Task: structure prediction
Amino acid sequence: MLLALLLAILSLANAICAKGQSMIFVVQKHQATHLHYDFRLEIDGVLKSWAVPKGPSTTPKEKRLAVLVEDHPLSYATFEGIIPEGYGAGTVEIWDSGTFENRTEKNGVPVQLAEAFKNGHIHIRLSGRRLSGDYVLMRFKGDKNWLLTKVLNAP
Result:
């Protein structure tokens, strides 16, 4: 009986983590060699990060290239300042930040963020100052190239 209760609690915890839990996102405007926007999502205790050359769109018809870059620690979500000479040198400012909710499903079943990332298809609902509503990140070419698209809000 205790084992059944523990399994039920574990199943509920996984469902909560899979869909509906709010986590942080940040978009940092990064004036490096070329201006781009770093789109970062809290996934598995780190900020999964994509460089978006033209910045995120607020129009569902526009797809934006998002190139996967290295993970960053969660503490980086509040960083603004100047990165000295070397990789990524330049000015960084927070362009938008807020929370997001995982909306990823497969056949009507919630999919955890880590699995969605691994599968190359993430559906999220952003709640920020500039960005709000549903967005999809979809891997399309190799391991690093993704598309970031604003989509019409799902119910």
Notes: The chain is about 15% helix and 55% strand. Helices lie at 2-18, 113-119. The longest helix spans residues 2-18.
